[in-house]
Input
Amino acid sequence: NILLDRQECLAKPGSDFAAWSNVTMNGPEFLSIWQSSDFSCGGPHPDNAQFVLLFDLKTGEALDPYTLLPREMWPNKPKLGRYPGDETSFILYRPLQNLYTSRAVLDPLMPEECLDIFADDRWMHFLLWPDAKEHALIIQPDGLAHAEAYCAEALPVPLDVLRQLHAPLRLI
Output
C-alpha cells in the first residue's frame, strides 16, 4: 500500500515522497477516490504513480471499473495491480485506447507525438474513474515509459458520448 511504499522510500538517504488523494465522486451510486504519489527513492530520476479506488455505495463493495463501460469494451482478463483494489483500476484493451485517442485528438494542448503514441498498436494501461465535477468518465494512460509520461493526460468522456456508446445507465 502507499504507506509501505512511503516508508520503504524514505528509509533511503536523500529520498523524497509526497502523496495526495481526491474524492472524484461521492454518490449517489459510487465513491471514487483518485490517489497519486511523487517520489524519488534513489533511482536515476523521480517518478510518480496513480491509482483509483472505486466503491458501490449501496453494497460497500469495491467495483470493477470495467462495469462502467459498455460490455464490448471490457478486456478479456483483468490485470492485477500492486495496491489493494488496484486490480480494478487498470484496463488493457484496444477499444479503450481507441476511445482515448478519439478524445485526445480533440484536445488542442495534446502534443502531436502523443497522438502517435496512442495510435501505436500496443497494449496500453488506463486508469478509469467517474468524476462528478466533470460530469464525465475520466480515462488516463498509465504506465507509459518515463520519456512518454508527459502524454498521460486525464481526459473526460462526457455523458453524451457515454450514451452513444451505450454505457450502463447507473453511470449516466
Remarks:
- The helical segments are 2-10, 94-104, 112-119, 159-164.
- The chain has four helices and six strands.
- The longest helix spans residues 94-104.
